[in-house]
Amino acid sequence: MNYVFCTEESVILRVISGIAKGHKLKTLKGNNTRPTSDKVKGSLFNILAGAMEGADVLDLFAGTGNLGIEALSRGANSATFIDKSSDCAAIIRENLIHTKLVDLATVLTGDIFRMMSKLANEGMSFDIIFLDPPYNKNLVEETLNCIIENDVLKRSSIVIAEHDIDDIVSDEIGVLKKVRSTNYGDTVMSFFMVVERQ
């Protein structure tokens, strides 16, 4: 697969709340990338407010690190960022240094699916997983299946997939069940929770 997984563009992004509140995040220029807007991000984190403190977070297709950095600012214990683009990985590191959150973070560059296998081999698991893959590539369900197969979930994990309104995303995928779906124009946030563990 030769997808460019960086998902942010040259717009003004900032940390909305928490210890890094107000810090602007560096972004990448270009027309082929897409940000998670402050409006959508604010709504997302209001929904997740009770789950953030002390959470271990995985940010897939991480772009500028917008979501993982917001999670760290709001009290997450750690954040692991994965993006295929080395340019995105460099931006994430710069943003972590700027927000003084670098000590809580790990940034991995490479294919999302191979990197998740690496995390599984290291015995890592996460409370909250964000995924924001390129739209219209049928990557949401593929990524959710990869998350399940690599067993990086905890019993109470929450997985949030950002996707286009026209993307087809099943209500149940393995041990994950969609519990909420919120539309923001053409963008949808689908929330999944673990419903059964072996």
Describe this structure in words.
With about 200 residues, the protein is α/β, with parallel strands linked by helices. The protein has one domain (about 15-195): Rossmann fold. Helix content is about 25%, strand content about 30%. It has helices at about 40-45, 65-75, 85-100, 110-120, 140-150, and strands at about 15, 25, 55-60, 80-85, 105-110, 125-130, 155-165, 170-175, 175-185, 185-195. The strands form 2 sheets. Strands 5-4-3-6-7-10-9-8 form an 8-stranded mixed beta sheet. Helix 2 (about 65-75) links the parallel strand 3 (about 55-60) and strand 4 (about 80-85). It is globular. Residues about 1-5 have low confidence and may be disordered.
Largest sheet report: 8 strands, mixed
**Assigned CATH superfamily:** Vaccinia Virus protein VP39
CATH topology: Rossmann fold
Got a strand count?
10
Strand fraction: 25-35%
Query: What's the helix-strand series?
Result: EEHEHEHEHEHEEEE
Structural class: alpha/beta
- Which class in CATH terms? Alpha Beta
CATH architecture: 3-Layer(aba) Sandwich
Mean pLDDT across residues? 89
Order of strands across the widest beta sheet? 5-4-3-6-7-10-9-8
Distance between the termini: 32 Å
Query: How big is the Rg?
Result: 15 Å
Number of domains: 1
Give me the secondary-structure topology:
Blueprint: E1 13-14, E2 24-25, H1 38-47, E3 56-60, H2 66-73, E4 78-83, H3 86-98, E5 105-109, H4 112-121, E6 126-131, H5 139-149, E7 153-164, E8 172-173, E9 176-184, E10 187-194
Parallel strand pairs: 3-4, 3-6, 4-5, 6-7
Antiparallel strand pairs: 1-2, 7-10, 8-9, 9-10
